[in-house]
Structure formats: structure tokens, C-alpha cells
Amino acid sequence: MKINIYGSSLAAWVAAACLAKVGNDVVICDVSEGADQELRKISVIRDELGLLDELTLQINEGRLARVQHVNAEAGVHWLALQSNEQKLAAQVINSLQKAECLYALVVSQCNFSVGATADLQSQLGGSGDVVYIPDNLQEGRALEGFNKPKSLILGFDNDSALTRVKALLRPFSSNLEGLQIMSSREAEFTKFAITGMLAIRLGYVNELANLADQLGVDIGVVQDGMGADPRIGRHYLSPGCGFGGQNFHAYVSRFSGILQKERQQSLLKTIVEENEVQKELLFRKLWQYYKGDLAGKTVGIWGVSFKPGTASIDNAPSLKIIDALISQGVKVRVHDPEALNNLKAHYAEEALIAYYDDHMELVKGIDALLLVTEWPLYCSPDYEVLVSRMNKPLIVDGRNVFDKEMMSLSGIDYLGVGR
Amino acid sequence: MNSRDIKAWVALQLHAEELKGVHLKELFELDADRFNKLSVSTGRFMMDFSKQRMTTKTLDKLLDLARQQELSAWVEKLFSGEKVNVSENRAALHTALRSPSSESLSVDGQNITSDVHESLAKMEGLVQKIQRGQWRGYDGSPIRSVVNIGVGGSNLGPLMACDALEQYAPTDTQRLDVHFVSSMDGSELEKLLPTLDPAVTLFIISSKTFSTIDTLANANTARQWLLDASSCDASLINQHHFVAATGNVQGALDWGVPKKNQLLFWDWVGGRYSLWSAIGVPIALKIGMVNFRAMLNGAHQMDKHFRDAPFEKNLPVLLGLIGVWNINFLNIHAHAILPYDGRLAEFPSYLEQLEMESNGKSINHENKRINYRTCPVLWGEVGSNAQHAFYQLLHQGTEPVMCDFIASATRYKNEGAQLQEQHQLSLANCFAQSRLLALGTGALETSVKAKDYQHYDGNQPSTSLMLDELTPETFGGLIALYEHKVFVQSVIWEINPFDQWGVEKGKEVATSLLAELNEKGKGGLDSSTEGLLRYTLSQGEGSNREN
How much is the pLDDT for B3? Predict the structure, then answer.
């Protein structure tokens, strides 16, 4: 099949690699702005293990090509745009109509809103079908997730689409245990509901961790106990200093907005708001430790990206922590394997921030070290070196990666999240 | 007038005799152009005093009185920082608080304007830190609630402004709840504290002298609440949860507010004229510094108008003289303030203090008792609500009452037809009431003969003050207008509007009675007070026994 893929998200590149691999003739149409870089320079590709190799292979084999326009020749058009690129989706549909193709199958993985797919369908009219297939990407396992999904949701409003979609997805159905077929609106709703559920879970775990802090209970133990219950399971049970990132945050906020508007419902809104409060958790712990007297102190931060494996600082807890620290006149030193350039661009000429390439160099003479993003590089530091170099051996661990016992044996004051 | 030329005064007395039997209805019938002659419009204000029981001749004579009393010279004294507050040997420079930095004023070698702008800058820094969510409470959380503790001028002005300008609260910064507590019995705190989270609550202690017992009693209760909730020591709580707006650095310091948390103003700012100073910090927190500065600018525009406009076009001068005419020549001793705008609900309370504390005096500049009346009893309420309360007395009672109707011409520009209709309804009622008060049942063209109890005499005088719309600027202008009106009247009456000796003695007596209540007093009181003490103590004994 001739397939066009639109978008520059991880979902777009993964779909391109996987669809080409099974023999389709795939063209990536880089309609998003600034998406014409070399593959190896695109961070979502670079950060996903195996993706760059697979894409390169498919290009070399001649099954995958990149163009920078809408190519209407194809029979399948795969939209994997960002949630704020709804206009681009409309443009693609528009150009399909102009090209007067006989039939187009449009697959959308875009998370715009409930009803967006139906809107695209009515825009496309009789020239084809629009099918919504929510992505279930997990970063780090994205290729596997696409190639061998355990479950899939198909959302569409014209029955004629089903045969064609099934044919398209047949090579990826070997492990399929559940295929859910529903209307496009129901499918969109389901995707929102899943994301909201995960956010609520994280929010709840963070709330538990904060309570554990107050009651002197170790949340790690509680976490194990909860996870062992089959009704709960172990996923999404790790507390931390808030979730960030562009997609997840934007997506949860968007769903929260829909709930607010349609239902005057505030559960998810509370979760989003509390998450913003949680992002300042490490600052509050530091503030309490120093009894509100932070002016003139020097504080080191390990990790500023919103999660390991990305250079993105969108909605990252580190930003709120740094803002809070510099407002108190604290000198802040930062290290991050990937995100320092983004951070420099964000803070421009802020004199209180110093950027370090060596995370162990950074700790010399500091009054506290905050671990904000759990890059593997930070997980097993030489405790003796830390103690000898730090002015005050105080570590605030926002991701509970350090061994609490070892820390205190080494003479380090350790503050975790909920332990 | 006790001491000087009294020609203009006598002329007005004679003129009042002439006008005595003339009903407002007749005045309107006599002169179709009455509104044009007896109204003044500036850029954003329009004052209609054609429903006052006066003619252009009256106005001329009132202006003569103003000249006879050397009003121009007094205005210059006020603005230039002369010690117009004689009994306390101070200037009254609230006008300098809203003067732009380009118009510098020095008094006794001190550059007042730069002091003012320094204080404003410090206030701005503090306001921004709080609004950006970077002022931290004891556990490191950002402050979300602010409670102003103050009484009198340290309460009424900011409270009124926050209420009136709420719609101007910025949307791009953290939304703050701003609360006010004032009463010394702790009633407000008792209700408010359980609704607040101590970790995110900041208290502003607003007291010029930092010795006001009402305020300190509330501040102590607030601090104890924080200490109990936080288990932190007092110095940490003082640093992160208390700001002082005061003129007494040492007093605030002794109580525990560190200097960096002090916003200062000066002895030349009277309490009831202080919302333009550091006392206005709750306003700035509520509506943002940009809007606070807009409010100052609106007041400054009114200052310029008061200083520069000829008397016959000068809003504060006219408003003041109209009051004098009603009080001293028409013998009207009650004044109702009737805003037809729920946002100005607190305005009457504010004016009660501004007018009655300023001009409720009977000793003149030469320390002699005067033989004419000064400030009337003044009260008010949102007009449309008052229609269901005391308007009955205005329409059919035995007391002559002068009224100020206040309304804005436009409102709810972007808020839909329904609310705009409500505004129209309110304006229709405003205009209807002043019309009915002036003309009586004669305002209604009805052929049916009214029964006596359905009859309205009319002839109650009123002024209608219209704003183009209520904004921080016009609000600032409105307050400055009344401040200057009060000053104008004080000049006519030859009294000092800037002191308040009448509120001092009660504090002393209370201190001695507190000792009596603690059973450490000397006794020897009047039998009523002794009876009250005896009753209270006997009730307290009962409850102590139960404990």
C-alpha cells in the first residue's frame, strides 16, 4: 500500500518505520514546522532506542521517503500530529479534496478533542473514511508497542472503513488479544480517559507520599504492598516531584478543560493543580530544612529535563524549583546530560544560575543537592566524594533513586519523597 | 463667622430667606435651562446640582463666600505642604502621595516626592513577589491569602477600594484572596481563621502609630494562630507571615515585623487619607500595581482639577459649597450617600469617616467655639437597597435630608445583555428617585387625586454625580473629589479637618475601665458604669465557677 504519514511526533516516526518494514510504500510528509532536519538530529528519534536504525534501514531499502508537502497519490494517509496542530490536519484533508482522489483512508492518531475525528470525516465527505486509532506508545518501547500491540482501539463512523483498516493492520495483529471497535467520539473519549486515569493515579500516589512524609512512613514499602494487589498492579505507583512534559501535561489539561466545561467537574483540575504544587516539593523540603533562610546559599540541581531520555524542559518541575530558588536569592548550579541548552535559552542572562558539564564538579561547596530528573548517570554517586565536596551534605531526592540507609551511613542528610 | 468679614455669609442668609418658600418644582418651571446652568462636566465626571434648592444667584453668593474665606490661598497651603493641621503641627499631604515623580515637592528641605516613590517601589516589589507566588509561608508554600488588620482609615479605604475594583484583579498572576479584619472584639478573626490555611496566609498590620489597641489585639491573635498551627518559632513566623504598613518603624520592629517587611508612610498622611500610601497595599495586591497606579493617577487628575479649575467649574468646590448652603442656610442636617452601584457598597461607610471625623468639629482655628453648624450626620447605602429601607423617611418623613446620588453611565460592556439591562434598571431607579424627591407627587402626571398618605411633598435636594464608568482612575478621582470637598467645607467653617481629638479620650477611659474589669480599678465611677461593671463581673464569676 502507498501510505503517507504526517507529523513529527514520536508516533509518526514509529508508524513510518513499522509500516515500511512490512512492505508498504511509505512517505513521511514533514508538514510540521522545522521538521526537515537530519534524522539523527531529531531528538524524539534519537531518544527512542532502535528507531534511528530502523528508519535508516527502511530509507536505504527504498520503502521510506521524506517529502515536505502533501502527496495525494497515496491511498492511506496517517496523521500523527501534535495536539495543537489541528489546523494542519484540516489542511491535509483539504489538499486531499483538491486532488480529487477516488478514495482515501485517513488514519488519525491525533489527540485533538472529542469530536475532532468526526469533524475531519465531515470535511472529507464522501472522498474516504477517517479512522481514529489512539496511540498507546510507551517511550522506550515504542517499536514493540506498534509491531505487536496487545490491544487496539479503532474509532470510526463509516462501516466501510473496517475492511481497509483491518488489512492495513493485519501484519501487526499477531499478538492482538483485544480489538475494540467503537465510534470515533468514543475512541477519543477513551484515550482521554486513560490519560486522565494515569494522571489521577500519579496524583494520588504523590498525595500518599506527602502524607507518608508527615506520618513517618516509608512510601516505598507501601508502594510494594499496593502493587501486589492484582486490582491495582505496579504501574504508575512511583511518587515524585510532579509530572511534566508537553504531551502528557497538555493532554491532561485539555481533558480537564473538557470536564470543567461540560460537567463542572474538578477532580482532574485538582490533580493538575496539585501537580503544580508537587513540582515545588523539593523547594519546600529545602526551605523547611533551612527554616526559611535560603538567601545566599548555593544549591545544586541534578537533572532539569522533564524526564530522563529527553532534552525537553516543557513543564518540567526543575523550572518551578529554579524560579523559587532564585526568588529567594539562592545561587543555583545545574547539570543535565541533554537539557542544558534548553535551560540556558529559557533563563537567558540570569546571573544566579551556573551551568555545569560535570555533575560531580558541581557539588563542590554547595549547601544542598536536589535530584530532580533521574538520569541513570546520577543513580550511584560516590558518597564519600559527595560528603567531602559539599559544604553541607544534604540531598533532596525527588525521584527516590538513592539508597536511604547508605546515605545516612555516609553522613548525608537525606530527604526523599515520602520516605 | 466668628472672626472675620461676614458679608458673604449674611448675604446668603438673606438670600435663603428669599428662596424659603420656593419649591424645587417651581424652580424647574421657572427656568427651562436650569440643568445647563447648574451642572458641570469634566472629562469623566458629570455633576448635576440642578436638583438643589438654589439658583445661579445662590451659586454666585456661595462663590463670594469661598473668596471671602480665602479658599484659593488655603488650597495652595494644602498642596504646598504648609502645616494646615495646626493642632498637630503637621502638613496634610495626601495629594503628594499621588503626585507623579516628575512633580517634585520639598517640605522642610525633605524631598517628599522621592520618598513617596521610593515607598511605592518597595510596595511594588513586595506586591510582585506575592503575586508571582514567590512570597513563601513557613512551610515554603506560596502565599495565597492576605488578611489586612487595621481599623478606621487603615481599614475602610482599602476595603472599599478592593470591593469596588474587584473586576480589575489581574488574571495573569496568582489569584489572591484579600480579607479585612478590624473589630477589636475579634469577631471577624474568629469567623475568618477557620477558613484559611495558615501556611499560605499573610497578615498586613496596618497602623500608622503601631499602637492602635484594636489592631494589635487582632495581630496578636493572628500570630498565636500561626504559632499553634506551625510549631515554628516566632521570629520565623514574623518574617514570613507579617507585613507592616506603618509610620512607626521602631514600634513595628518591637512587635516583631522585620524592617524588610515594613512599608512606610509619614506623619503628614492622615489615617482617613491614607489609602494612597502603603496602607493601600491590600488594594495593590487585589488589583495589581498597574491598576493601583492608575487609581493614584485618577486622584492626581482630580487634584489638578481642584487646584486649577475656576471655582464655578470646580467639582470639589461646588460640592463643598452646596453642602454649606444646605447645612448653614437651609438648615438641613442629614446627608444620605446613595450609590446606585453595588460595587460602591462600602463608599458610604468610608465617607462616614472621611466627612464626620474630618469636619465633626466645633472649635475654629483660633481655638474658639463656633456659632454655626458644621458636618451633618451622614449615612448611606446602595441606593436601590435603601429604597427598601429608609427612603420612606426621605419621601414622607419630617426630616429634610440632602442626598448624593452616584452612578456610572456605562457598565458591563462585555458581559451580555442581561446584566446591561440590570444596569439600565438601576439607572432608571436612580433618576426616578432624585426626580421624585425633588418634585414630589408633582413629578407624576396623574389625573387621579392622591390621598394624603399617598402624597409626596418633594423639595428634598440632591446632587447627582455621574462617572463615565467605574475604573481605577475614576474611582481614584471620586475619592479625591470627596476629600477636597471636605477640605473646602473646613475652610468655610474655619476648622481643622485633619485632627480627631474627639476620638482620643475614649481610649484613655477604656484603659481605666479595663482595669476595673480586671478588678484592679479604683472605683468611684458614675452609677450607670458601675452597674454595668457589676453585672458583667457577676456573669463572669458564674462561668468561671463552671470551668
Answer: 47
SS3 of B487, please? helix
Residues above pLDDT 90, as percent of chain A: 60
Domain ranges of chain A: 2-182, 191-277, 280-415
Residue B182 confidence class, pLDDT cut points 50, 70, 90: very high
Which amino acid does the sequence have at A93?
I
Which of A241, A276, A286, A287 to mutate against chain B (most B CBs within 10 Å)?
A: A287
Tens-digit pLDDT profile for residues B266-317 = 999 999 999 999 999 999 999 999 999 999 999 999 999 999 999 999 999 9
Q: What burial letters (b/e) apply to B361-384, b meaning 16+ CB within 10 Å?
A: beebbeeeebeeebbbebbbbbbb
Contact assessment for residue A156 and residue A129, using Cβ atoms and an 8 Å cutoff: yes
| Cα first-last separation, chain A | 55
Does pLDDT of A265 surpass 80? no
Nearest to B307, CA basis, from B44, B96, B59, B65: B96
Rounded alpha-carbon distances, angstroms, from residue B346 to B161, B269, B353, B527: 8, 22, 11, 38
Q: Is the pLDDT of residue B545 over 50?
A: no
Residue of B336, B455, B463, B338 lying closest to B396 (CA atoms): B455
Looking at chain B, the domain(s) classified CATH 3.40.50.10490 span: 7-68+309-444+456-501, 109-287
In one-letter notation, the amino acid at residue A91 is Q
Helix (H) or strand (E) holding B34: helix B34-37
- Amino acid present at B435: R
Q: What is the CB neighbour count within 10 angstroms for residue B429?
A: 15
Indicate the class that CATH gives domain B7-68+309-444+456-501.
Answer: alpha beta
Each residue's pLDDT tens digit, A360-377: 999 999 999 999 999 999
- The alpha carbon of residue B275 and the mean position of all alpha carbons in its chain are separated, in whole angstroms, by 9
Question: How far is B23 from B38, CA to CA, in rounded Å?
Answer: 16
> What's the CATH fold of domain A191-277?
N-(1-d-carboxylethyl)-l-norvaline Dehydrogenase; domain 2 (1.10.1040)
Report the length, in residues, of chain B: 547
Q: What is the mean pLDDT of residues A295-302?
A: 97
Return d(Cα B402, Cα B331) in angstroms, integer.
Answer: 10
Helix (H) or strand (E) holding A15: helix A10-21
Mean pLDDT computed over B175-197: 95
Which of B129, B140, B239 minimises the CB distance to A288? B140
Active site amino acids of B: 357, 388, 507
Question: What's the pLDDT band for A140 if we cut at 50, 70, 90?
Answer: low
C-alpha span between A380 and A382 (Å, rounded) = 7
- The interface pTM score, or ipTM, of the predicted complex is 0.82
**B contacts of A289 (beta carbons < 8 Å):** none
Q: Shortest Cα distance from A287 to chain B (angstroms)?
A: 6
Distance from CA of B240 to the nearest CA of A (A): 8
Strand, helix or coil for residue A147: helix
> In degrees rounded to 5, what are phi and psi of residue A186?
-65, -40
Query: B142 vs chain A: nearest CA distance in angstroms?
Result: 9
Q: Quick one: A100 exposed, middle or buried, by C-beta within 10 A (0-12, 13-18, 19+)?
A: exposed
Residue A9: what pLDDT?
A: 83
Could you please report the per-residue DSSP string of B251-286?
A: HHHHHT--GGGEEE--TTS-GGG-TTTGGGHHHHHH
Cell for A21? 518494514
Q: Assign a CATH topology to domain B109-287.
A: Rossmann fold (3.40.50)
Which one of B129, B134, B236 has the shortest CB-CB distance to A291? B236
Domain A2-182 is classified in which CATH homologous superfamily?
A: NAD(P)-binding Rossmann-like Domain (3.40.50.720)
Whether A2-182 shares its CATH topology with A191-277 is answered no
Can you give the C-alpha Rg of chain B in angstroms?
A: 25
**What pLDDT score was predicted for residue A129?**
93
CATH of domain A280-415: 3.40.50.720
